[in-house]
Amino acid sequence: MAGTFKNVVVIGASGNVGKPTVDALLKAGFTVTALTRKTSSAKFPSEVKTHQIDDNYPSEQLLDAFKGQDAVVNLLPPIDINQHNTIADKAAEAGVKRFIPTEFGSDTAESKVVQLVPMFGGKAAITGYLKKKESSGMTWTAIVNGAFFDWGLQTGFLGFDLKSHTAQIYDAGDAKINMTTLSVVGQSVASVLQHPAETANRYVYVQSTVGTQNEILAALEKSTSEKWTINKISSADARKEGGEKLSKGDMSGILPSITGGIYSGEQKTNYDETHGTDNDLLGLKQTPLEELVDKVVKGQPV
């Protein structure tokens, strides 16, 4: 059952995080509305309601979309901070009880994380603004899930090319990081809304597994029965390259900026060791790294 929350509107419901989030919310018994732009051609399961607004997310249309909703899950990219703040303002004005912002990833509550990957500052600013809205009666929950494991392996974002069997290893490859599958990320959203009191006005930490690049590589070599080609790279050089590209408006700098940060070992990328996870509270399972890697390699659901 959905507990004290019933109606949930999801912004960005057709994206990589949005799809498993919608699926998990429906499975948990929530009434789900996808807030979409009028120019969007996204399709959703028949159980999902849709509410279309103009592409620039006008304030009054947002207010109308949020009326009668218990929770808002905002999955828009953290680029236009003012837009995110306006969405939060209108959600609070409409009487929304819980707001889940576009956090999802590294722990931006840690200043070192934002220092190493400045582009994460947008996420921290959005959550910071939500803290100021607490007096309105609207609560918030920021979900930290580390790296998106299956998506990261499939796309090469984590440094592994499943087609060429090539690995890009940062530094010594021994920085331990938290990783979560997209399906578990979606489940975490639904479970947060099923545990409103325990998750109000705080960061929650979830993971499917934890490991290093060297451990991922060993699992990949075992699963593929092949020795992989290894290319070494400095995490500091990657961050420098990413920062220079982003300063010129080149979005290809996103990947080296993020991976150079999470694999540096300088930020608290393993929150399982620093302050634990909320997996038990939220009823989320953890899976051995080797098992997850093998399933991704074989194209099995994780």
List the helices and strands and how they pair.
Elements: E1 7-11, H1 18-27, E2 31-37, E3 49-53, H2 59-66, E4 71-74, H3 81-93, E5 98-100, H4 111-116, H5 121-132, E6 139-144, E7 147-148, H6 149-155, E8 160-161, E9 166-170, E10 177-180, H7 182-194, H8 196-199, E11 202-205, E12 209-211, H9 213-224, E13 229-233, H10 235-247, H11 254-262, H12 271-274, H13 279-282, H14 289-297
Parallel strand pairs: 1-2, 1-4, 2-3, 4-5, 5-6, 6-11, 7-10, 9-13
Antiparallel strand pairs: 8-9, 10-12
Protein described:
It is a single chain. The protein has 302 residues and is of the alpha/beta class. It has helices at 18-27, 59-66, 81-93, 111-116, 121-132, 149-155, 182-194, 196-199, 213-224, 235-247, 254-262, 271-274, 279-282, 289-297; strands at 7-11, 31-37, 49-53, 71-74, 98-100, 139-144, 147-148, 160-161, 166-170, 177-180, 202-205, 209-211, 229-233. A seven-stranded parallel beta sheet has the order 3-2-1-4-5-6-11, sandwiched between helices. Strand 4 (71-74), helix 3 (81-93) and strand 5 (98-100) form a beta-alpha-beta unit. Helix 2 (59-66) packs across helix 3 (81-93), helix 9 crosses helix 14 (289-297) and helix 10 runs antiparallel to helix 11 (254-262). The longest helix is centred in the first third of the chain and has 13 residues, at 81-93. The two termini are 24 Å apart. The model has no long low-confidence stretch (mean pLDDT 95).
